[in-house]
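--- STAGE predict ---
source: upstream dedup step, 1 unique chain passed
mode: sequence only
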Amino acid sequence: MKRSWNPRTWLGFVLCLAALVSYPTFFARYPITRDFPWATLLLMALALYLVASGALRAFRRPDAYRGKIFGSILGVLSVAIVGLFLFGIFHLTRMLPASHGAPQVGQLAPDFTLPDSQGENVTLSNLLQSPFPTDGAAGAASGKTAAVVLIFYRGYW
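--- STAGE serialize ---
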């Protein structure tokens, strides 16, 4: 009897690699899959299932299916890929240094000057002292001063 190839093992390994690559290239763009990588974890779980079932099929029926050696190697590689991904996502990202100098909620921001969308320099203190325009007219003032909302994104690179 001729032994056939075991596509589950190879498909599982390719899916494991695709899941690993898809997180930084696609899923990290959206907060719903970036904050907790559930989509990548589901793909990796499916990949591990395919690799394990393919390897078990090769060991249970060696007369019908090939892949005892490659199934074992791809199984170990797939587990290592998933383990490194989990270590990186759940451990290394928590090891970021604390931002002691970052402003806290409700704290006054220091005065700064930055370019606006037209390339002109804007100072925070000037924005806070400028009158608040009403009805879309830039010159009309209602006696209120403008407010500024600052959003700080903490990055690591």
